[in-house]
Automatic annotation (TrEMBL):
Domain HTH lysR-type, first and last residues per copy: 3-60
Keyword Transcription: yes
Transmembrane segments: none
GO molecular function per UniProt: DNA binding; DNA-binding transcription factor activity
The species this protein was found in: Erythrobacter mangrovi
Pfam family, one: LysR_substrate
Name of this chain's protein: LysR family transcriptional regulator
Keywords per UniProt: DNA-binding, Transcription, Transcription regulation
Length: 298
């Protein structure tokens, strides 16, 4: 197998932009060169990495797997460049970090993997719980840091935070749903649709806040705390949902396809950030973890 670093960079750019033209602009290379690189990757791996459609591209199941490995390669190369600037031998201690379930499943792993590679002698203690309890632990000084949905923070007078990722929300539906063919989808089109809500990390509150513009609450057909449950229900036509792009995948575990459409109205974003108690003097492990988070964002 003959895969180059350049091809990996182009693949990541297209995957993140969901468009070959936008991806080529991001890396400053012609669209034809990027297209050739993607075609070569698919030939070398023997799998289809993207679904092509008139509005751009979306990753296949194999494409998502390849993206994860591709990012690991990019991160490993970045570690070679800037990781040696830290004293990996003498960095010791413990950093206690609170996280919420969506952060654990969709945001944390790459950061944690990079930190452990760079600082193998620093122990990371994770506490996963609901947002309000993570806030409580931060304010009480029982955690060094928290990574959570900061757009929902309540105790902002006692907690400082920095937004790391701002994820737009989309309407999810089965590809054969009548609204899947609507080009300029509006919230009014969704008003009376059965809705599948996710009762995880306060995501059900997101749907309720969006429906507050109507004179009735959403018609909730199913409520579940399982992300895969939402995908299965939406993919088989039990209802639509509105969730951030961060957690979108174009299939369920059973292989049912799901599409995500952007309504023409502005929707609330889901902001994931790193938080700490105000006026805290950070320990060295906590400072190193924050530096790693900042490097990961570059």
């Amino acid at each position: 197998m003959n895969i180059t670093f350049r091809q990996i960079r182009y693949f990541i750019a297209v995957a993140e932009a969901r468009s070959v033209s936008a991806g080529s602009t991001a890396v400053g290379i012609s669209q034809s060169a990027v297209t050739d690189a993607i075609r070569t990757l698919e030939m070398e791996t023997g799998v289809k990495l993207f679904y092509r459609h008139p509005k751009g591209v979306t990753l296949t199941r194999e494409g998502h797997k390849f993206l994860r490995h591709a990012r690991s390669i990019i991160n490993a190369v970045a570690d070679l460049a800037d990781g040696v600037g830290h004293d990996q031998v003498t960095a010791t201690g413990t950093v206690k970090i609170g996280v919420t379930p969506v952060v654990t499943g969709y945001f944390l792993s790459d950061i944690l993997s990079r930190f452990r590679r760079m600082f193998p002698q620093v122990t990371v203690q994770l506490v996963e719980d609901k947002r309000d309890y993570i806030e409580h632990l931060l304010v009480n000084g029982e955690l060094d840091l928290g990574i959570l949905i900061v757009s929902n923070l309540v105790q902002k007078a006692a907690i400082d935070f920095e937004v790391l990722l701002r994820s737009d929300c989309r309407a999810w539906m089965a590809p054969w749903h009548p609204l899947s063919e609507v080009d300029a989808l509006s919230l009014a089109d969704l008003e009376n649709e059965p809705v599948v809500t996710l009762s995880l990390d306060e995501m059900d509150g997101l749907v309720e806040s969006i429906w507050s513009k109507f004179d009735h609450p959403p018609h909730v057909s199913y409520r579940t705390s399982s992300m895969e449950g939402v995908r299965s229900l939406v993919g088989t036509g039990a209802g639509i949902t509105i969730l951030p792009q961060l957690v979108y995948r174009p299939w369920s575990l059973d292989g049912d396809r799901i599409i995500a459409k952007r309504p023409r109205e502005d929707l609330p974003t889901v902001d994931i950030g790193i938080a700490w108690r105000r006026l805290t003097h950070h320990s060295e492990p906590a400072m190193l973890f924050m530096e790693t988070v900042h490097e990961q964002r570059r």
